[in-house]
Amino acid sequence: MANKSDYSAEQITVLEGLEPVRKRPGMYIGGTGAEGLHHLVWEIIDNAIDEALAGYATSVSVTMQADGGIRVIDNGRGIPTDIHPKTGKSTVETVLTVLHAGGKFGGGGYKVSGGLHGVGVSVVNALSAKLIVRVYRDGKIYEQTYERGAPLGDLKVTGESQQTGTEITFYPDQEIFKETISFSYDTILDRLRHAAYLTKGVHTSIADEVSGHRYSFYFEGGIQSYVKHLNIGKDVLDEDIFYVDRTLEDTQVEVALQYTDAYTETIKTFANNVLNPDGGTHLTGFRAALTRVINDYARKQGLLKEKEENLSGEDTREGLTAIVLVKLPDPQFEGQTKNKLGNPEVRGYVEAVLNEYLNYYFEEHPAIARKIVGKALLAARARKAARAARENIIRKGILDGASMPGKLADCSSKDPGDSELFLVEGDSAGGSAKSGRDSKTQAILPLRGKVLNVERARLDKMLANNEILSLIKALGVGIEESFDVRGLRYGRVIIMTDADVDGAHISTLLMTFFFRFMKPVIDEGHLYLAKPPLYELVRSGSKENVYAYSDEELNEIIDTEITARQKAGQTSEDATTERIKQAGFSELKRYKGLGEMDATQLFETTMNPEQRVLIKVHVEDAEKADAIFNKLMGTEVDLRKSFIQSRAKFVKDLDV
Ligand code: 28F
Q: Which protein residue's CA is at the shortest distance from atom 23 of ligand 1?
């Protein structure tokens, strides 16, 4: 295809029509699935946010209409309605029908929040079966309607109003979006939350006319509030949050950061309000400045001896939560997922701003600075201890495949395809599992007591914990640098704990371990939770018992039995225990722990592949999961308990 410079001026004008957009939508919005569909909304929201960033709008509201349309309105100046000299049409119509016409706003500002690098609202117009634009400006209401990008008439005045702003309602074209044209409330909610965090002082809101759900965001503190939100449930080194907002050349650099006592780091980077999951030059600059300022301060204060080696970047980022936001006119994104900022000059800008302002902050806040350096020194020591522990383990061959942990009752099959490892809480249940199991395909590793909370332990402590070491050896995948999921000795790793809160706590600790150190085991679908029965209904006068795995299942069983007996005239309505009797069960047993079942019962109800129920653990959204694990594996035990009992985030797989 000839490149741009081959076209003459008028041809570029022709190209700016909207036909190409409908021919190859993927070129403009990435795809025509749900993600591409939502890019339409992002473009409109970004234009409204740009009006806020330019200092004229203070609110952006999104409504998911009952008729399938999406309405976005801001209270900015309103798109100009004057006739555009170049096209002889109103500026509104020009912005809506010419590609990239909206890129440059008046007043010298530039589009800074363009998720799609400002392809412009004309793309949304082209891909909408219908689009209505309303402009509130000069005391009037102007309106124009389009179908698939073509105006049905000229912009006309339809009323009067003292408010100002732009309102766009659009209906995605089903001819383009064949997969779906329905929007996700949660997806838009997340985007509006981010938009409010990244644009301090702006109100964003969403309302779903069908469900009635509505939510609004407003963060005076912008990214400082964002850091505060990310650190909920964690112990911070100091309440104060570092913040700097400086513009160098045409690039705005905004950074907020705060340290916690966690061992993980959470650094989110954004360019023009779009999250860059793979970082980029802004992250490189941030890291370089942080490491340099902390090392310089540590040496200046005599906390790091002359002969001691520098603190590593990793040491200085342990426990760090930071938001790095840059706004620039022409962001370049790299990598096949376009998730990495490539502009080389940005590294220098971020580094310069941070060097100057973080250094200044340390001088102004010596107590906080000493805490941050202190934590980095501890991290450096632990890093060296972990290295020593790892070398020691590797030297002793502790992790080598050869020696299996003593407590492991392995299965005879060596084929991961048909073998599974049960991680069982406690020795008594471990004993029953060992004797009840199918020893050809089922291995048992009893884990004593509370598995180490790896969320709060560094590698050196972890490798000193026998339970964790046994687990690492039994799995056969090594750890850290030597980790290789292809070494997994079992097709399924099944966490089998009591159905009470402590059991759930242990299973969460184990899931944290896998999430933090063996995430591919989860991602490749090897990790499961066993589902032991909660109740046993003993049928009077018979050995045959019925098991219920949840309260609703228990009621279902009882109701079914009662209905059956009512039909046979054998019973009448009555209270719960009566209900159980009338359902023909003389006893209801509530299982507190696996240990209350004998080996056969445990096998039949929870281990037998023919009738057990397994829940496959998978991480829907690493970012969310990270937040959950961070928050819940911190010090807030009650937070952890409520999570376990109500919101465990995994999808249930009925495994026959
Ligand atoms: C619901 C989505 O799109 N809001 C917008 C403005 C304001 C101006 C503008 C937009 C074309 C090239 C100038 C007004 N007054 N919300 C929105 N608000 N576009 S889009 O101008 C676009 C023109 O440059 C605006 C003075 N200058 C700019």
A: 105
